[in-house]
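User: Fold this; tokens only.

Assistant: Input:
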Amino acid sequence: MEFLHAADLHIDSPLRGLDRYEGAPVERLRNATRAALERLVDAALAQGVDFVLLAGDIFDRDWQDFHTGLFFREQMVRLHRGGIPVFMILGNHDAQGVITRQLPWPENVTVFSSRRPQTHRLDPLQVAIHGRSFPDRAVEEDWVPTYPDPVPGYFNIGLLHTSLGGRPGHDRYAPTDAATLAARGYDYWALGHVHAREVVRRDPWIVFPGNLQGRHANETGPKGCERVRVTPAGVEVEPLELDEVRWHRLRVELDGMEDIVPLGRAVTRALAAALPPGDERLHAVRVTLAGAGEGLHQLEARVPGTLEAQVRAAAQDLNGMDVWIERVDWLRASPVDRAVAAARDDAVGELVRQVDTLLADPEAARALVEAQLRELHQRLPAEADPGLLDTLQDPEGLRALLLDAEATVRARLEDGEEGRG
């Protein structure tokens, strides 16, 4: 017996601001969640699995129109024609009380009730699947003790959308723990809600498959579902990579580097080492540059954007790879002796002292930068850099932003002093 376990498809999850990234592959990024579902269906049909489990958050939010539901239904029809049943629960994003538009699902799709846990049997396979859907966005109680007893002699599976005792970046819904799950007596717990793959336990199997498709630079690495085989020898679980777009974070060390030629080479080498050769996916990469010599500092200060352009040029030089540089950050250690600069009795000294004050209080720095942006743009974030708000929430990104601004202003001040000399 064999089945696929997926969760957190977040079909048609909105990716705002992409059209403001020059050269961004907008359509491919926006269609990535759909393409990943198509790959899931392709895999199920090709491997002839016995059924598919979907552990919640199939949809990201209430449908804007019926196109989202019709697309999902079309994929379920493909499975129906292949004789593959689908068992699904609703999570916090697509809870019973969230999705207002309705479509009749094909006969092969079973959606578990949100009122109480249910059991569905596949008698020819001797499989019993137990689960419950979210009635609303938030479920604060542990549902596991209310799940039905295991069916004797059957392979028992529990479907649950939960963060267990809590996971970073995820609301604590349907809280429980591995011991409580194991005590229920099921053979496999098909979990959803957490977007990073995690095998919590192997006896019994308790598995988060992660989300089917990464949606931004905080959801990096391979994404997909679990392929589960049940044989007389035991249970085998392996991940299937199904993502259409793969997100990466890449750090490139530039310590001592003085000009852009070695910078480009270093970035090309780092990209080539980090990305799987010959992979046809789109690879979206957020690059962080760390360090650099005085020459690069001065060049970037006088011509802002030089380093980012070099990173993007290096990505273009990769053969046979589809790479999009989503953002470039620079965490530079200033070559300037800050203590000496701060002691200067001039505009440069005042500038460095003000930046040091902000660096010591990130919350005050964030508030100041946001206030300045609102004053300049009026309609933040509609007219701002689409990646800038993310930067403000990232302590390292905020530090880099402040040091970039300081270097640009300092270079202009010092150029002015040279001109006057």
